[in-house]
Every structure is written in C-alpha cells, then in structure tokens.
Amino acid sequence: MSVIDCVRGVISPLLANLFLHYALDRWLAANYPQVPFERYADDVIAHCRTERQAQKMRKAIAERLQSCGLELHPEKTKIVYCKDDLRRRTYPNEKFDFLGYTFRPRRSKNRKGKFFINFSPAVSNKAAKAIRDTIRSWKLPQRSDKAIEDLSRMFNPIIRGWLQYYGRYYRSAMYPMARALNRDLALWAVRKYKKLRRHLRRATHWIARISRRAPGLFALWQLGARRGSVMGAV
Predict the structure, then answer these.
(1) I need a surface site. Which of 137, 182, 201, 233 has the fewest CB within 10 A?
(2) What is the DSSP string of 150-165?
(3) How many whole angstroms separate alpha carbon 84 and alpha carbon 123?
C-alpha cells in the first residue's frame, strides 16, 4: 500500500519546499521511522504495508499539515494498492503518477524467461504526450534546408535526455515517441529529396535504414537498434 499525498497551499515553490522539509519530512522521519517516504515539491509518497496503516498515515499527515496551515489535495490524495504477483487483490486505485512516471502492475520477464506481474514505473501518458507535442513543435517537415546531421545536432541532446530519464524503465513505452519522431523525419525527407517526393512509404523505409545504420543520430532510434527492427517504420 502507498499513500499518495498532494499538499495544497499558497506559498511559493521554494519556500514550500523549505517549509515542508521541516514541517513534514523531519516530522515523518521522527514520528514514523518505519514508513519510508519520498517527496518532490508538494507531492509525497508514503509506503505502507497494510490498508489500515495507510489510512492511519493519511489521517496523521492531514492533521500534521492542518496544524501547519496546509491541507491535503482532496482529489489527488489517495491510497494505492501496489498489485503484483504477491498482492493479487483488487482495489479501486492500483496506479499513480510521480515525477513523469506511471507506477502500475506490469507484465515483466525474469532472467530465466518466466513472465510475472511486477508493480513498476514507465513513462506516463502525460509525459509521453508532452514529448510528442515537443517533437511536433520542432516542425521537422518544414526544415528541408537542413541535413539530417544538422537536425541531429539541433535536437538529439534533448532526445537523449528523454531517453536517459524516461527510458530507464520499460523502454518499450517510448515506442510511440520514436514513431512520432520518425513520422516527422519521413515527411522531412519527402520535402527534401526529389526521389522521395509523393512517396511517403519509401521515405519511411529510407529513414528506417538510416536508423539501423546510425542509431546514434537520434537517441530514440536506439530503442530498436538491438533487435535490428524497423523502428523507423510508421
């Protein structure tokens, strides 16, 4: 079980972080040392072993914050059941978002090739949409004056940062972002090269061949490099 707490207040983020360090972090560590927790800004996760403990923690945190002039967010604060192979019950809340990740039950494979259910993170839908929107904002199809190496120098540092952060867990969840990038690159190729004009499918496979030959040009291409897949295909 986990208690997801979202503190609501009116003070600035910097002051809120400093205030919550003393008002909440140190208070939790001193009064509930057996309950691990993480906090980023005003989002807090407390890890509980049972639903009863989670209910108790939510009540205690709410009372502590109220005494400090703050309150829990009434909609975002919830108890989440971390369902996996060892915890097989059903519960109204079985997933949550934190730091751009969605934590939920996922099908995993161990070293022996056996599948099991694991409660683990992957890039959240909100973060994935933000990435796709950013790629769209680059307007790659309209940059036919640039070579593909130029586009790599302009945007690959950003893409590499996404992969390093969100690709740490369940990289396959980033495939839609790779497809969005490759679609725009194929449209760029259609405009840039006469032999590819009016041939989007041919341009798509041309980008796919480049992605296999030089996966370092765009970091998201590395998602398909190991298996030699046509990650460039749309």
Answers:
(1) 137
(2) HHHHHHHHHHHHHHHH
(3) 19
